[in-house]
Design a protein that fits this description.
By secondary structure, this protein is of the alpha+beta class. The chain is built from three helices and five strands. Helices cover 33% and strands 19% of the residues. The termini are far apart.
Length: 121
């Protein structure tokens, strides 16, 4: 049985890791981690609804902030694949449409966002 402890992570001098707190509906202590020059943003659960609730006041500024990072790949907490910038932009467009009341029937993401924004009203 191995034990996970506080181990330092060696980072080459050419790599910059920036950790920033973000305001989310999921939790109060969410952070994102930008790794440069790789342009990878670890978002963890920041984009998830908290208790299946999203609010316009928190979610929409968060989407803007996430897309403002100089990143082209995104790693989410519960998603098996690394998401490309184009894929994230498409997901955010669905979320924004759902926040405005437009839902693409049969689209799982669109329906998820619609239900979460409805619960947050």
């Amino acid at each position: 049985m191995s034990r996970i402890g506080r181990q330092p992570i060696p980072i080459p001098e050419s790599v910059t890791v920036r950790v920033e707190h973000v305001v989310t509906d999921h939790c109060d202590d969410a952070c994102v981690v930008l790794v440069r020059p790789d342009r990878v943003l670890f978002v963890g659960d920041a984009l998830c609804a908290g208790r299946d609730v999203l609010t316009r006041e928190r979610a929409l500024p968060l989407y803007d902030r996430i897309l403002a990072y100089d990143a082209d790949r995104y790693v989410e907490g519960h998603h098996r694949a690394v998401t490309s910038r184009a894929e994230l932009e498409e997901l955010v467009a669905k979320a924004r449409a759902a926040a405005d009341g437009t839902v693409s029937g049969g689209d799982e993401d669109s329906e998820y966002f619609a239900a979460a924004f409805a619960a947050g009203r």
